[in-house]
# Entry
Amino acid sequence: MRRGPYVLIVILAVGIMLIMPVTLWARTPTPNEVEAVARTLYCPLCVGERLDACEIPLCQDMKKEIARQLAEGRTPEEIRAYFVEQYGPVVLGEPPRKGINWLAWVIPVIVLIGAAAYALFKIKEWSRSSPEPQAVAVVDEAGSAEDEYAARVERELAELE
Amino acid sequence: MSGRKLTRGQIVGLIVAVVFLGILTAGLLMRHQGRPENTEAPDFTLQLYDGGTIHLADLRGQVVLINFWASWCEPCKDEARDLEEVWRRYKDKGVVFIGINWSDTESKARAYLQTYNITYPNGPDLGRRIGQKYHVQGVPETFFVDKKGIVRKVVIQPMTAGQLMAIIEPLRAETGE
# Structure
């Protein structure tokens, strides 16, 4: 009886059984992996709520979509880009560049420029109003004291003569 | 009353405050512009789930119903069958229905269309750009556009077949000139 083909089949079957779970496991992202991506995204319908903490149906669907795309081998960057394409930059936590939301972009720049201008103005003001260097005054004082001393010596010498 | 002279710093502060308040007021006014009604329907091109595209401006001369929906929206499910029923009744009578899937995931949206057997043109509002043009705040929201391209009615609640027909019929009877 030839055992060769049976042995081969058994080896193949065992091999498949060993490899398959590993392959499946490798393709299924862990909850931590999904959460790591979800933590970098925001709910498009809520106000400033991160996706990992959001429980509304859309957020749950988005998390499932993250898991699906991770399983397909997409990188977190690719997944983020996909969601930006779907819902706009609001999913990155950025305020939409529209209407009153422009203030969120414009105000920091205005404040920065204003603060820089004010600091420059104050520095100039201080440099203008600062007193003469102390050393000069000391020299002057010392000089006048010396002169006075010399004049007194001169006067006293003259009196002696 | 003796006038107190302002320092340069105070003048700068005052100017900054006035500019800030101006921007804030303009922003609030823009935000409250609201949905378009009795004005021209904002134009858009929608990529459809079936692969084609639909351009609103190409539909002049027909009554257009634009329905924003999402698969996670329970009230949308209430009106889904009525929308399909009315669409089938009017599709060859100068009326076009467009479904715009708003803030949703594609797989869920496709499953929804299949569940409710929806056959009128549908596509995703990518980047929510169309929703922004129409100032959509939630779903369902339905816009009725007349033959001249003017938004004549906005409904922000689920609608029955009877309510839909009550709005479509008079618009259909109007001349498009």
Chain A touches chain B through 30 residues (CB under 8 Å). The longest helix of chain A spans residues 102-129. The radius of gyration of chain A is 40 Å.
